[in-house]
Structures are given as C-alpha cells and as structure tokens.
Automatic annotation (TrEMBL):
Leader sequence residues: 1-19
Protein name in the entry: Gliding motility-associated C-terminal domain-containing protein
Keywords tagged on the record: Signal
Organism (species): Panacibacter microcysteis
Domain PKD as annotated: residue spans: 325-378, 412-464
C-alpha cells in the first residue's frame, strides 16, 4: 500500500517576540572530551522557519542549564547564530494533485559547554515566546502560547558513566507532504551514538509563560514546564486525533491525517542503558496538513459497528481527480467474499456479528494504482458513559464508569480532565478520583473500549463550585395561622432542617411546616461532602391587613395605578377586564367611565376586601381643522373648535393671534400647527390636535430666452416652473396650454409672448419672450462696431442668430491673426478685453460657423470696429 508521508513545518526554538514564525526544532549534543571531573559537550540547537516568513532567527539566543532533580539554575548562555540553510522539495509525486510548496530555512546554534559530573544530571532548555498562529489541536484563543524545548544529560546516580552520554538525535527528511484525510507514515526514528535502546511516545508539548513585554531576551524559566492547552478532541498522546499512532520501537507515526490545518506534535524518545532509562530527548513540531489530494486507496485502521447498526457505509478516505476505477470487497475470516462492488462508495448490511475484512483497489493495472485493507468489527450494543459525584473545589470528585457492552466486556478506560490551572491530567482507572483546584466549567472526556475491540468517546461538561447550589424558592414569606406551608429547595442531596420539632421531615428537601408564631428555619445541604447552608423566615399572622387608596378622578381613558397597603400574599381585583393583571397587588386600570374596583387580599385562609371608586372626566375637545395647501408667500386661515375655556396655538412666531380659535398663519415653509385646549371640569390634561399647512415652492416661471427666427422656421418653445401653462397670444402656436408648443411664422414680425405658469394650489406667475422674425435666408448678423465703455449700451460684440439650429463657434481676431475670443454659446460675446486687459480702438475680424434649421452648414465672416 502506498503510504504518504506527513507535510510538516517544524516549530522551532525562538527567543523573542520577533521570531514567532519559527516552526520547530530540537536540541542534541555529543560528548567531546573529559578533563578530570569536567565533561565538554558539543551542543546543537536546530530550528526551522517557513521560507516565506519575513521573520529572522534570534541572534544571539539564550540556552539555560538546570539541575535535573532540584531544578536549580546552573548557568545561562547567550549563543550566536552559527549558520542558516535553505532546503526545498523539488521532486513531487505525480500522483499528488494540488501539492503544497515545501521550503524551510534552518537555523543552527552550535556551541560547546563544559559541566562537572553531577549525580542528578542536567536539563538544557530554550524557550519560544509565541508559537505560530491558528493551531487546530489547541483550545481556541490559546494558539499563540509559547514553547519550551529541552534535552537531558544523565547524572551518575542511575549510571556511573551517565555523563559520558551522547544524546539521541531525530533523523529523517524535513521535506515531506501530508494531504488531509489521507493515510500516511512518517518516521520519527532517531540514531544514538552510544547504541542505547530507544523507546518512542507521543507526549505533551511544553508551553512557555516566561515572556515579558518590552523585554526582548530573557533566560528560560525553571522547570517543571506546563503543557499547552489541548482542545478536548486532542491530547499530547493524541495530537492528530484518534486515528494516528506511533510505534514505540521504531518511532513510526502512521494513520489517517486530520483535516487541513496546523497541529502541535511532540515526540519523546527515551534512552535506555542496562535496563535503566537514563535520559529523554524531545522534538516539538508544528505539523501542517494541507488540502492536497493524493491518489491513494485509504481506509480507516478499523471500522466499528458497535452502537445499534449492522450496516456500514464505505468510501475512499482519499479523493483525487486521478482515480479512474474502484473495486470493493468484503470477506469473512474464512476468506469467503460477502460483497463486491465497482462503485466509488459501498453499503453493506451484515447478518451476524464478528470480525470481517475489507479491501479496496483503485486504478488497478493503471497509472497511480493503489490498494488498502482494513477490518470491520460488528458488535452492536456498546454504549460508553460515565457519572460523577462531588463537585466542590479542592475536594475529591468521584467519576463512575457506566459503560456497557452487549457482546464483550468493557476493559479499557482513558480519562482526560481539563480546565486546570496547570496541565490537563489523565487516568486509566475505571472509576478514578480527581480533585479540581479551580472553579468553573470543566470538560471531561472518557475513551472506553471493550474486549471485542469496540471503542468510543463520551464528553461531559461539569461545573466546579465552592459549594453546591441551594435554591430556596423564597427566603421570607408569610402565612396565616393555622395554615401549613411547604418549604421548597429545588435540589437533591442530603438535607437537614432545624428546628427539627417544627418540620414534618428534617431530611425532606421540601418539608411541610405549620408554625404558630414567626419562625426561622435553617437547612444544610450535603452532596458527597460538599456542603451549603441557607435559611427561610416564616412570618405568622392571624389576619390580613388591607387599606385601599382614596377614591380618585382621572381623565377618561387614562391608565392609573390602584394603590393599596396590605400584607396579603394573593390578590384578586374586579372588574378584571379593565386591568392589566387582576392578580397583581397594584395593577394598572384603564376606564372611560366611572368604575368601582374591588380588591380581595388573602394569606392562606385569611381574607380581607376593600373598594376604590374611579370617576372619569373626558378630555377637552380640540379640533384644529383640515390640512391645507397654500401658495408661496400667502397666508392661511386656521379654523379651530374646542369646548374648553382656554386654548393656545403653536408655534407662535408665524401666527396672528395664538389665543384665538380662528387665526391667520403666514408660514415661510410647510408647518404643522398645534391647537391645545384646557378646561376646568376635572381633567387637568389638555386636548390636543394639529393641522398641517403645506407651502408650495415659489413658482419660477420661465418662457425661454429672446430669440430670432426666419420665416417658416420651426421654433420650439420651452416653458417651465409649474404644472399648468397658458401662452398669450395663441397665434402661430401649435397649442397654447402646454409647456412646449411649436411656433411657426409666415411673415416677418416682432412677436411678444406671455407665459402664465400655475401649480396644484392655483398659484400663478408669468414670464415673457420676444421672437423676432426675419424675412431672409438663415443668417447670422454681427454689428459693424461696438463701444465697450461699460455704459450699458453696445458694450459686448455678440452675433444675432436668425434661422439657425446651432451655433458652432464665434471667434474674434486682431489684425495680426491672433485669436482674442471664441465661444460656442449663443448670447455670449466679446467685451473687448483679453485676460482682463482692454484692447485698443481699431478694426477686428470675426468669424462664425453654425448649422441652420434645415441642417445645412453655415459660415460667414466680417469686420467690426472697437470704439473707445
């Protein structure tokens, strides 16, 4: 079977906040020499970084040495960066689609250290203040925790020659790829110069809490080192989930890769000599799983039908566009084929329990062919579960396994207790005891297995408290002698009530009491040694007190609160349909007429009754009249009505008389006027109404600019400014009651038109236009002279257009041909200046181009005299 190796980006040793993109590393050493009691070691710190990282390796970096047993600090070294190496993966398997770019920068810190022989041995340590971001197997929000990396030098206590040790060092290619949800193998095997026996395990990654903002370089903190906060679905022993394992003898990690992302993985290797473990070396990595696709046949290590079903659904755990064919086969232990299929997925229902074999071939006899084998356990009826007792902080919590197996025996338990201030802790006992040292929510997981090979995981969140909750339904209450009362706790556990002689059952969580005088009852709750106390006072009376508020007068339809003084516990008001809630002690009442309200108060069998008479008075009538529309600049007459004896119009600034029922308003803009009326009939509140006076915009009548045409030329008039239009006179117009009639003249004349413009309120304004009709061909006339002396007469030289559809350009030149003025806008002309400078008296040449009303081009030129 093809095995895909992990795509890994190693997390490395970092020494200040600038190196938080370091992605892996290890520390190893070799004995160089011995001189008397002193041993000299060549130490290598090897760290990794993505090639695309903009960060730099620390230079220098701190390496700290501690006594392995006492954790006392021995010395701190500042080590310079020795060299940097760049490695790249260039030979990518052609059966991988969407392969990632694999490139690492490797930084080496190589130095010698001399230490005297010690019975306890030494621990070499360096720290990373921030790991890379967004790691998928850590608790959300804690992915940027620091990291601590170590290597151990043995002492003489376990082995006389312990200090002569050269450490194990991890080997294997760093240029590897892993695709999400694909099967893989990756060797974490090591070599040991001393030939020691090596044992491998997946272990907790160390975090670092030694970082101080503003301090770039600090020595490593002293051991012990806390674990990173793993997400509940992961742990140090399961950093890539339940489908990935390590071979203790070879260091080979294998299984089904998790989803795309970055995962913290730490591998520990123990060096054993003469049957004794003399040192443990570690490699802490960030493994990056990419969303690539490997053309492989990938199955889970094992398929479990252990719940209630005997039907299995199978699919290739690897997806790739390069897969062209499938062949599924399920067999029993004797090799007999029970099922086969060429489909991409397979579904099969087993008729009996047992262990079965499954085989998958893809692309058989083709390019990128592969195959996979696995087993299926069919033993339904396996149910994981647990219970617990005792949840007080700093007290033991007993966890109780309640898992069951119909066909086998539950025989394996792996507990994980998270939420601690320090490490998440584990246990393999069936019914462990655990003590929480902090309050709050704690997640507990149990991985359980049975003798048939079934395994499953159950999670529960528990709440650790300083004392068990004791939820009394009330703390103080009232009863009327000789009524009884049930005290309610809403809890389970062991109870003890006092005074015992006044309680129906001192152990009952909800006992009945019948005191003949006011009594305070005390209760103690004990849940597995976790205790809490509370009390309730029962006040005893022999009657109900009830005094209602005096009768009252209100405005009709207004809500009012019905006040009483009473020690009653329950209340009933009538009539209920006029109240917000007839069971309230002081409800809100709303009525339009006189109403007598009756209230009954009771404490058990003790009852009292009283009445409140509410008289209503209507609001004063206020009618402001109908909304109206007026023309701009005109007034509006406001006609109001009221049965009150006082009134007020507002706003006052635009009104002739604010105290008169009929008044004149002269608003500049649309305004809402409010009429407020009062009277002295008992309702102190005013009647209010409003009227809206809408002021239409001022009419800006426009008939167009004066113009000239020639006989039989069509002239389009364009009036504007309102909603209705009337042209006077109507002669020579296509219509006299529209904004844009067409005019045509059959003779030469001067014509003046008046345009009357109106709006929806009947407001009017007028404008005028002069139309001069020439009995010529379409022409443009330019005066032969002009006097720009600013006397308002003949100051501007402008063309007079007759019979033209459009003037394209009008230009003026001096006698040297220099352009002085040019425009394409009709009615614009030359004022005899250039850039503000007056031009001298003399003759000037003009030129004009246009298009006449028939569409023909027109051009003419001439001279004019500027006279000053």
């Amino acid at each position: 079977m093809r095995k895909l190796i992990l795509y890994i980006i190693f997390c490395c040793i970092v020494f200040n906040a600038n190196a938080d993109h370091i992605t892996g590393g290890q520390i190893y050493y070799t004995l160089k020499s011995v001189s008397g009691p002193n041993y000299t070691y060549a130490v290598t710190v090897k760290m990794y970084m993505d090639c695309n990282s903009f960060r730099e390796f620390y230079n220098p970096a701190y390496i700290s040495v501690f006594n392995k047993k006492t954790t006392a600090r021995v010395q701190d070294l500042m080590v310079s960066l020795t060299n940097i190496e760049v490695i790249r993966l260039t030979d990518v398997d052609e059966c991988i689609t969407n392969p990632p770019v694999v490139c690492h920068k490797i930084g080496y810190y190589i130095f010698d250290i001399t230490l005297p022989a010690s019975p306890d041995g030494y621990l070499l340590t360096t720290e990373v203040f921030f790991r890379v971001n967004n790691m998928n197997n850590l608790v959300s929000g804690y992915d940027n925790v620091g990291a601590t990396y170590t290597a151990e030098i043995p002492g003489t206590f376990l082995l006389t020659a312990g200090p002569t040790n050269s450490s194990a060092r991890f080997t294997g290619s760093d240029l590897v790829i892993i695709c999400a949800s694909h099967e893989f193998e990756y060797s974490f095997g090591s070599e040991d110069p001393d030939g020691d026996e090596l044992t491998y395990s997946l272990c907790n990654a160390y975090r670092s809490d030694n970082f101080m903002f503003g301090v770039d370089l600090t020595p490593a903190a002293a051991p012990p080192y806390p674990s990173v906060p793993y997400d509940p679905e992961f742990s140090g022993g399961r950093p890539l989930g339940n489908n990935v394992h390590i071979d203790a003898k070879t260091g080979l990690i294998s299984g089904i890769a998790p989803g795309p992302g970055t995962y913290v993985v730490t591998v520990c290797v123990e060096e054993k000599r003469n049957g004794k473990i003399i040192a443990t070396q570690r490699k802490d990595l960030q493994i990056r799983v990419t969303d690539c696709s490997f053309t492989s046949a990938t199955l889970a290590d094992q398929y479990l039908l252990c719940d209630t079903s005997k039907t299995i659904y199978l699919e290739n755990l690897s997806t790739s566009a390069l897969i062209q064919s499938y062949n599924w086969r399920i067999t029993d232990n004797g090799g007999a084929t029970l099922f086969s299929s060429p489909d991409p997925t397979a579904t099969y229902s087993f008729t009996d329990t047992g262990k079965y074999n499954i085989m998958l071939d893809i692309n058989k006899n083709q390019k990128c062919a592969d195959s996979a084998n696995s087993t299926i356990l069919v033993y339904p009826g396996f149910k994981p579960g647990f219970d617990y007792k005792g949840l007080c902080v700093d007290k033991q919590t007993q966890f109780i396994d309640i898992s069951s197996s119909f066909y086998g025996t539950v025989n394996s338990w792996q507990w994980s207790f998270t939420g601690q201030v320090t490490l998440p802790e584990t246990s393999t006992l069936q019914n462990p005891v655990y003590t929480y040292n902090s309050l709050g929510s704690k997640l507990v997981s149990l991985v359980v297995a049975d003798s048939k090979g079934c395994t499953d995981t159950v999670y529960k969140t528990i709440e650790v408290v300083d004392k068990p909750p004791l939820n009394l339904a009330f703390k103080d209450t009232l009863i009327c002698k000789p009524d009884t009362l049930q005290l309610v706790t809403g809890n389970t556990g062991k109870f003890f009530w006092t005074p015992a002689n006044l309680v129906s059952n001192v152990a009952d969580p909800n006992p009945v009491v019948m005191p003949d005088r006011t009594t305070t009852y005390y209760v103690e709750l004990d849940i597995d040694g976790c205790k809490n106390n509370d009390s309730v006072t029962v006040n005893v009376v022999d009657h109900v007190t009830l005094t209602a508020m005096p009768d009252s007068t209100i405005c009709s339809g207004d809500p009012t609160i019905l006040h009483i003084v009473s020690d009653g516990l329950q209340f009933n008001w009538q009539p209920a349909d006029k109240l917000t809630d007839a069971s309230l002690k002081e409800p809100s009442a709303t009525t339009n007429n006189q109403t007598l309200f009756t209230v009954t108060a009771n404490i058990g069998r003790c009852i009292a009754t009283d009445k409140i008479n509410i008289t209503t008075v209507p609001y004063p009538v206020a009618l402001a009249g109908n909304d109206t529309i007026i023309c701009f600049g005109t007034s509006a007459l406001l006609h109001g009505f009221t049965d009150g004896n006082r009134l007020l119009w507002s706003p006052a600034g635009q009104l002739q008389n604010t105290a008169s029922i009929n008044t004149t308003a002269l608003p500049a803009t649309s305004t809402t006027y409010t009429l407020t009326a009062f009277y002295d009939k008992g309702c102190p509140k005013p009647g209010i109404d409003s009227v809206r006076v809408t002021v239409l915009p001022k009419i800006n009548a426009f008939a167009g600019r004066d113009t000239t045409v020639v006989v039989n030329q069509v002239l389009q008039l364009n009036g504007s400014g309102g909603t209705t239009y009337t042209w006077v006179p109507a002669a020579n117009l296509s219509a006299a009651n529209i904004a844009n009639p067409v005019a045509r003249f059959s003779y030469a004349s001067d014509n003046a038109y008046k345009l009357v413009v109106g709006n929806e309120a009947g407001c009017h304004d007028s404008a005028y236009i002069q139309v001069k009709v020439y009995k010529t061909r379409p022409s443009i006339f330019v005066p032969t002279g002009f006097t720009p002396n600013k006397d308002g007469k003949n100051d501007v030289l402008r063309p007079i257009i007759a019979g033209m559809q459009k003037m394209e350009i009008f230009s003026v030149y001096n006698r040297w041909g220099q352009l002085l003025f040019s425009t394409a806008v009709e009615q614009h002309g030359w004022d005899g200046t250039v850039s503000g400078n007056p031009q001298p008296t003399g003759t000037y040449v003009w030129m004009v181009k246009a298009i006449d009303y028939t569409g023909a081009p027109y051009f003419t030129k001439g001279t004019t005299t500027l006279i000053r």
